[in-house]
Amino acid sequence: MASFYAILVAWTLVSLVVSFVPSWLNETDFFTNKVLQMDKTSLSGFTDLGGINWYILLAYLIVWGIVIGIVSLGVEKGIDKANKIFMPGLFIMLVCMAIYSGTLTGAGTGLQHLFEPNIAKLKEMKTWTSAFGSGFFTLSICTAAIIIFSGYAPKDQDNTNQAFIIVFGDVLVAMIAAITIFSGIGNIAVLENKNFEEVFGAGETSLVFSVFPKIFAEINNVTYGLGNFLGIIFFLTVFFAGISSLIMVTEGATSPLHLDLNVKRLPATMIVGGVAMVLGFGLVFKNSALLIDAIASWVSGLWQLIIGIIEIIGVCFVWKKNSNYLWL
Fold it and tell me: Average pLDDT of the chain?
């Protein structure tokens, strides 16, 4: 999971840098051409990885350098201070983007697709597995992050109240992000004279990278440079969110080594980060996007739901039977 997160954050970092150049942002297929540098001539499946994308590799190494540095400082010195900047900044940027996207031509069409009920979908199993999988994913139930951070909480806190606050905040942010994305897709559909489904049909993982640059490029056509400014803000926001998530996942594996096996924090972080970094090297190629989409579909689907349920049962068992694990 950490390797997967790190690649997505690396994509974000490269997109952030590319957003500074107006001519690149305005290019057709911004994400596949400028960020991934996909070699479509040799692409026949997700196993055709192509050559190494050196920009993605460099960004990947930078991301892990940042994460290992923050996690090695500990929750109070590193993660806590980082989140005090990342989370409020993320929320403010998302709200601003949602308001702006709602004013675009075609936004109403996108919002209609988002909020118009389709009762027939409730009869499909995929709807429920996707919904529960998304809930487990966004609440970090399957990554040990929520367990790790709850271990640093005061012992006398009201956990029921905190649970309501966390779930409410999660749903609120998800709805703001959905409004932004669907409004933007509706705008692109109008500008490119396409059906909503044609634009929305991009791969789940790369949707945010392929749709939003088109919105910023259209803004540039009206006010030159404004699209780049909004693109920088947007990808900076996503970068903050990705770094924060990757910090949580890495801390989830670092804390047991540090607290229960008495490995010093820096070596423990280096071990966890190093292993995850090596595992992710297979995803830094020019044609890795299809492989990453396949991994995302596998991880965020039924398997995540099953693993999440097993984790909940296991933690409850461990908590009752054995309280010697310091990381719980």
Answer: 77
